């Protein structure tokens, strides 16, 4: 394992997801005292917030050694490793919630990651940038090049995002995998989006579990 | 900070190998103050050639402790906050009973009649010391290398007595490579005619054998990078080769110096006994999986390894962490980037300090809240 992260890009919506409205969303979902595992937890800001404000048993996985150092320095139990393999060691249903905050599109095998999340956790909270947002569609249509927007600021050759998906893609996958979507939140900036989320949401947050069929 | 060395004597200790030592002494030092609830005690466990003098300045030698950069006011193990204890291991030669100690049955040094000991025996004696100090639960047990092995043994053998464990550059079992280097060291000592089946006390110690053993050890503690950086191919006090077998290179001079210096502070028989204990160490006890070895473990863990450590490579720490995760034990892990090889836990402590400080302080707060 190398300690250098493959990329250290600034993730523009980390700030928003970790801003007040998104703390509120995840705080609203996660009940006090729950066991939570955050995949790709960065420097552990969210976990620290959940530990301090919700009394959760907070753990994390992060690839970047420098970020792991800072997370552990904050007192959060973080393991240095990658998400694609990082869940295999855990026993079934070890956590109440597995959080995957805008990292699904960076994993090599997102479907396997999602399945593993719901093996290890009772519920999964998946937040991802919506590739169906109108600005992405417009950029593609007008410029005819890989979209480079506020949401997706990277050049195609430099992007950590390798599996793009939209709100509707995720809904379809949930049906295909027989997942029950318990809650869904759509955000543009700090504002909640009502109608036409596939077109208007910049970030989607889904709370899913395996449906009892 | 001048520190005082203490020795406590216990009537006896029973060992894994079946023998009993009567009596047994433990040399230890403490730093900081035990709080009234006795909830701030940290046991620091030394590596192979370490001793109880972990921090501060020894009044006898005038030297700082082996982890003085980690233990003290405001440091990773902050003695303004925590009470830190360090003792010399069983089998050692720095105040705790070992092969150089006098066997009361004969009035002579034990030498090779000293029983073979294990890492668990070392930990058993440390537990007696902690009981003697009136401490029920340690906030943390920690150490690098062999110290990390003891920390793991504590967490498995005395799960009720440790809140957290910080094994650094450690392993759950000695590998063939680790055993191999230890065996070279032992054979160097045994091959020295001055060793005399271990009965050299009062005479000439097997200085050449012990020095060679230490030279090999030092090579394994460094990395190719750190040796290149520190010595390169520089010559020692000359501009051209001597075309003889005196010292040519800086690295030769360094190893010779380290070897001869070691002879003055370490007993060759202790070298044999302690390396044997390390080689026997296997947390699984040879049966079952590492995960089942951790079945009773209740501690929170922080494992640290170093990128250039080839003696205790990161995969060994990762093996520990994966086993703990499979039991859903609270564990944090980081591989720190360093060029210093295995020595990194002693010398490259900047990032290690950040990890330990954050981990300890959150563990301390949680323990207080529970």
How would you describe what is shown here?
With 213 residues, chain A is an alpha/beta fold. Chain A has a single domain, classed as 3-Layer(aba) Sandwich (Rossmann fold). In chain A, 35% of the residues lie in helices and 24% in strands. In chain A, strands 3-2-1-4-5-8-6-7 form an eight-stranded mixed sheet, with helices on both faces. In chain A, strand 6 and strand 7 form a beta hairpin. The radius of gyration of chain A is 16 Å and the shape is globular. The termini of chain A are far apart. The N terminus of chain A is likely disordered. By secondary structure, chain B is of the alpha/beta class. Chain B folds into two domains: 263 residues, Rossmann fold (3-Layer(aba) Sandwich); 89 residues, Rna Polymerase Sigma Factor, Chain: A (Orthogonal Bundle), CATH 1.10.1740. Chain B is built from eleven helices and 14 strands. In chain B, the strands form four sheets. Chain B has an eight-stranded mixed sheet with strand order 1-4-8-5-11-12-13-14, with helices on both faces. In chain B, strand 9 and strand 10 form a beta hairpin. The longest helix of chain B has 20 residues. The mean pLDDT of chain B is 96.
Architecture blueprint of SSEs:
The complex is a heterodimer of chains A (213) and B (370).
Chain A lengths: L11 H6 L2 H10 L5 E5 L5 H10 L2 E6 L2 H9 L3 E4 L2 H4 L8 E7 L8 H11 E9 L4 H10 L23 H10 L2 E10 L2 E2 L4 H4 L2 E8 L3
Parallel strand pairs in A: 1-2, 1-4, 2-3, 4-5
Antiparallel strand pairs in A: 5-8, 6-7, 6-8
Chain B lengths: L5 E5 L2 E2 L5 E2 L2 E8 L9 E5 L25 E2 L4 E2 L4 E5 L14 E2 L4 E2 L9 H14 L7 E5 L1 H12 L6 E5 L7 H15 L16 H15 L2 H7 L19 H14 L4 H13 L9 H4 L6 E7 L7 H13 L4 E6 L7 H4 L2 H20 L1
Parallel strand pairs in B: 5-8, 5-11, 6-7, 11-12, 12-13, 13-14
Antiparallel strand pairs in B: 1-4, 2-3, 4-8, 9-10
Helix pairs in contact in B: 1-2, 3-4, 3-7, 4-6
């Amino acid at each position: 394992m190398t300690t250098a992260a493959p990329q250290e890009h600034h993730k523009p919506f980390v700030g928003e997801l970790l801003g007040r409205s998104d703390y509120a969303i995840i705080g609203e979902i996660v009940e006090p005292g729950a066991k939570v595992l955050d995949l790709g937890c960065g420097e552990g800001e969210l976990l620290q917030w959940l530990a301090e404000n919700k009394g959760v048993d907070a753990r994390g996985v992060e690839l970047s050694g420098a970020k792991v150092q800072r997370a552990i320095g904050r007192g959060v139990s973080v393991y240095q490793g990658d998400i694609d393999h990082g869940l295999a060691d855990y026993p079934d249903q070890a956590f109440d919630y597995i959080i995957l905050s805008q990292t699904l599109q960076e994993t090599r095998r997102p479907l396997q990651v999602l399945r593993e999340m719901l093996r290890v956790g009772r519920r999964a909270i998946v937040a991802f940038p919506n590739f169906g947002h109108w600005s992405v569609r417009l950029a593609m249509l007008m410029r005819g090049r890989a979209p480079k927007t506020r949401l997706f600021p990277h050049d195609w050759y430099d992007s950590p995002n390798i599996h793009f998906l939209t709100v509707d893609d995720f809904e379809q996958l949930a049906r295909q995998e027989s997942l029950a979507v318990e809650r869904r939140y759509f955000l543009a900036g700090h504002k909640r989006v009502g109608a036409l989320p596939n077109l208007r949401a910049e970030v989607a947050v889904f709370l899913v579990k395996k449906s009892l069929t | 900070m001048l520190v005082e060395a203490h020795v406590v004597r216990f009537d006896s200790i029973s060992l894994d190998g079946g023998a009993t030592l009567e009596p047994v002494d433990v040399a230890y030092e403490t730093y900081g103050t035990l709080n009234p609830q006795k909830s701030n005690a940290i046991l620091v466990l030394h590596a192979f050639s370490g001793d109880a003098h972990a921090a501060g300045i020894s009044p006898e030698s005038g030297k700082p402790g082996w982890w003085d950069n980690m233990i003290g006011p405001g440091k990773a193990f902050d003695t303004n906050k925590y009470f830190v204890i360090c003792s010399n291991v069983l089998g050692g030669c720095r105040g705790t009973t070992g092969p150089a100690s006098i066997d009361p049955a004969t009035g002579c040094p034990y030498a090779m009649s000293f029983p073979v000991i294990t890492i668990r025996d070392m930990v058993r004696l440390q537990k007696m010391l902690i009981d003697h100090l009136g401490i029920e639960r340690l906030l943390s047990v920690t150490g690098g290398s062999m110290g990390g092995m003891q920390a793991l043994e504590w967490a498995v053998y005395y799960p009720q007595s440790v809140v957290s464990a910080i094994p650094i550059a450690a392993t759950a079992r000695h590998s063939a490579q680790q055993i191999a280097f230890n065996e070279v060291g032992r054979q160097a000592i045994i091959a020295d005619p001055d060793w005399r089946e271990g009965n050299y006390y009062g005479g000439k110690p097997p200085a050449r054998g012990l020095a060679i053993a230490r030279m090999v050890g030092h090579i394994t503690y460094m990395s190719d990078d750190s040796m290149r950086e520190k010595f390169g191919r520089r010559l020692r006090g000359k501009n051209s080769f001597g075309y003889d077998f005196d010292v040519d290179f800086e690295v030769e001079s360094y190893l010779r110096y380290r070897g001869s210096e070691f002879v003055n502070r370490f007993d060759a028989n202790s070298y044999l006994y302690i390396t044997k204990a390390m080689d026997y160490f296997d947390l699984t006890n040879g049966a079952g999986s590492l995960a089942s070895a951790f079945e009773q473990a209740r501690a929170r863990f922080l494992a640290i390894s170093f990128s250039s450590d080839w003696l205790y490579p990161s995969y060994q720490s990762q093996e520990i962490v994966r086993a703990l995760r499979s039991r859903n034990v609270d564990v944090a892990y980081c591989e720190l980037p360093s060029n210093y090889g295995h020595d990194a836990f002693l010398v490259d402590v900047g990032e290690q300090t950040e990890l330990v400080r954050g981990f300890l302080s959150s563990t301390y707060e949680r323990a207080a809240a529970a």
